[in-house]
Amino acid sequence: MKTRKLTIPYIIWMLVFTMIPIVMIGITAFTDKSGNFSLANFQSAFHYSGVFTKSLLIALISTAICLVVAYPLAYMMTRMKKSTQNTVIMLIMIPMWMNFLLRIYAWVILLQKNGPIDSALSMLGIHGTYIGNTAAVIAGMVYEYLPFMVLPIYTVMSKIDNGLIEAAQDLGSNNAAVFGKVVFPLSIPGIISGITMVFVPSASTFLVSQYLGGTDDIMIGDVIDKIFWTDQNTGSAISLVMMVFIFIFLVIMNLFGDEEAIA
Amino acid sequence: MTKKKGGVFTKFYIALILIFLYSPIAVMIITSFNKGKTVVWKGFSLKWYGELFKDKAILGALVNTLTIALLASFFATILGTMAAIGINNFRGKKRAVIQNVSNIPIISPDIVMGVSLMLLFAFLGNIFNFEMGYVTVLISHICFCVPFVVLNVIPRLRRMDQSIYDAALDLGCNQFQAFFKVVIHELMPGIISGFLMSFTYSLDDFIITHFTQGAKFQNLSTEIYAMLRRKIPPTINALSTLLFVTIIIIMIIINVRDRREEKRNSGR
Amino acid sequence: MEKTAKKTVISLRDIFVRFDGEVILNHINLDIREKEFVTILGPSGCGKTTTLRIIGGFVSPDSGDVIFDGEKINDLPPNKRSVNTVFQKYSLFPHLNVFDNVAFGLKLKKVPKDEIKKKVTKMLATVDLKGYEKRSVQKLSGGQQQRVAIARALVCDPEVILLDEPLGALDLKLRKSMQLELKEIQRQTEKTFIYVTHDQEEALTMSDRVVVMNNGSIEQIGTPEDIYNEPVNAFVADFIGEANILNGIMIDDCRVRILGKELECVDKGFGTNTPVDVVIRPEDIQITSPEDGQLTGVVQSSIFKGVHYEMSVMCGKCEIIVQSTKSAEIGSTVGMRVIPFNIQIMNKLLPIQSNTIETTVTYADESAQYFEFELEGETITVKDKYIPKGKRVRVYLPFDALSITGAGDGDLKDVYIESVVYKGEHNEIILESDSRKWLMLSDTDEQVATYVPLYFDFSKASFEILDSAEEKEG
Lengths: 263, 268, 474
Prior knowledge:
The complex is a heterotrimer of chains A (263), B (268) and C (474). Chain A is mainly alpha-helical. Chain A is 77% helix and 0% strand. Chain A has twelve helices and no strands. With 268 residues, chain B is mostly helical. Chain B folds into two domains: 64-233, Orthogonal Bundle (MetI-like fold); 241-268. Chain B has twelve helices and no strands. In chain B, α3 (47-54) crosses α12, α4 (56-88) packs across α9 and α4 (56-88) packs across α11 (220-230). The longest helix of chain B has 33 residues, at 56-88. The two termini of chain B are 31 Å apart. With 474 residues, chain C is an alpha+beta fold. Chain C is 19% helix and 40% strand. Chain C has a six-stranded mixed β-sheet, sandwiched between helices. In chain C, α2 crosses α3 (113-126) and α2 (98-108) runs parallel beside α4 (142-154). Chain C is globular. Residues 469-474 of chain C have low confidence and may be disordered. Classes of the chains: A mainly alpha (263), B mainly alpha (268), C alpha+beta (474). Chains in contact: A-B, B-C.
């Protein structure tokens, strides 16, 4: 019972370095430079509604691609030998432990003018630019966050009791039915956490678009990064709006998850 | 039977994904041995590696990155382990509240954490007259590391037979002895994975450091960011290659250790 | 008895414990003597483990004293008590091998190394684990882990060893042999053993004295023979061994009426025409010809159990279990005899004729024909009965007007099942709500020490309007 006291340093820490800073964003967003209450920051933030839309769109597309690519991969992995599974998981995780910036930079090298892809395609007579557009941003996002989609889905799937699958087969299900009635419903929690883990950072990051995107591929993270150094109030307002969007997204995901759990 | 049926397609699919994941890295590694400044192959050379080791900025950033990662994960591990033990003794609503709050740094976007901490440090800096730098980055890193330790230790606590703590007391331990002689051994796998997770996240972090680093401090990520802004110096390729090799070595070590542990556990 | 001369090691004086508003131990008094093997026996949730944890120092009582060798040790932490525990799941330290587990306590006491080695080796020999020193405790079987746990507690040379259902996780055969072994270890080491179990057979086999607990109270303390032959009430009789427990009327000293027949017995002092519980052990009933029997009945079933046949005989609506070396034909009518000495008379657990509620009507509706009253903070609605608001009323609910199954939350939400005793015809269930006890009949087996909703069927109730309240109103 006395061990409850051990949380005290942690609670103080979280209060000072997590809760108070977030409250400060709120306060800063609702005040002007001299510290008076103001809604002007949100008016300025409203100018970036186009950026918001584009960011959310890019994040959604990237998340969807990640899901479509990762889900079959996770399913295939669970059907392999345990040792092969471990190897594949390790191979998927290794690039993730590489420095985030270096991974984007690797894409810059790959896609840049006179880079490997450009030269290879030029030899075939195809000329074009492969960097500085939305597609490159999405490719970079998928590259950065794919492992975050694979891991949770794989973890949940690999925990599905083999007895359940055998029971379903025993009761007359074919492979498709086993998948549809057993594997898929049970993997939904993994899908939800995968979507969350990909969507949140891809909606808020600012590096991918800076290096791989064109001039009109500015994302909300870039805006915050650019504005915050000069205008903390507007920056806070934009951050707050972004947090609200992400919060709504998380709530929706959780609702979806709960419903599935009940059904 | 189902395992063989999908064999060829499975292999093809996985190969495709691995190509996607590794080709940029491969190109980077190859480029690092290029004599020329760009990707256009001009012949094999190790000169970028030589230049890398002459680059004081990068080496300084490397030292910063490593010390921050070590210190941050060390403090986060202590704070997080204590917190986990405490949280495990809460029940019901209080516990849910503490656990939800402790998940905030994990679910909230890095940029929000970075920006909010920057506001806090700027505010405190005005009052107490300090500038952002090593210490503020360290504090920020501890912030996002602690939840990972808590998340890793709590399941170990749950799985632990609660009465071994009682048994230690019963045999003459005081509370501290009971923790350090018995309980900690049971929590160790969780503590270690919490520490390792903290360490890797700290190594990799750019965004939060970016906002809390102040004018003079640089870690590897921010240094690379700055380098990429100026021009693309080929030393970066050499650096990436070295980091990649280091990571592979660490991953192999961890993997071997895990498998050994698995074997030990399955032997029970 | 020579045992009574022995010195008292541990005394629990008026111990009261409450967790989350729930009474766990209700003013317990217990003396434990030197070198004795005491078993605390009771169903799960009766407070026996809490009693042990109080002695071990893991729980402090809300009130009352723990006295060890004449000294009050209420606030002494576990590590300062000369008491060691063998835990339910053994709780060996997984990171230490067998030797280091056993040596753990000695090392903390800073005993010299060579002495530790000597003591541990000797102790491992005592528990039959010679040569296991370097083994990992995780690779031992349940029985071996159990022995390590016992050795680890014994090697510290405490005055008292506490054992918390230590054989619970073992299979039946191993459990039987470990019972004998434990008893032997206790005899050899001459320690006081306090053993907690819910297994009555274990308690009877091993103990010098048995403490039977239920619902946070001690029901009976005595030697296994006492407890078996002279249970103080229906709960103990039912919990220890097999028993026919019947409702009876004590007509006068040494005369009891059961199943409509008057029988001779040896018990006195219950008064005249007092309702009592009567216990007759199945092995004490002799099967005779119908003419010679004190009671007669029809044989329902007969199962061969190795040494004897176990028969179920219906006397009217009441089932009586008989153990006999001779079987009787199923469907035949038999007589049964019991010698007076084997008829055990006990006070009723809850001496009531019906459940009565005395209350005031808080709301009534004449046109809809119902009224309401308050009971333990709940509003209870009585349908199809009108009694004006403000009247004092006494409600008599017969035992069969109560039930613990039904729709909704029940009239009372959480009542505690204190005991379930089979009385040949029905289970007699004693329930405890916040302020009182209830008696109900049920044909299903209910789980003791659980919480259930309680429903009243007022169509079976009778009502008596009390005049006094009317006067007050007027």
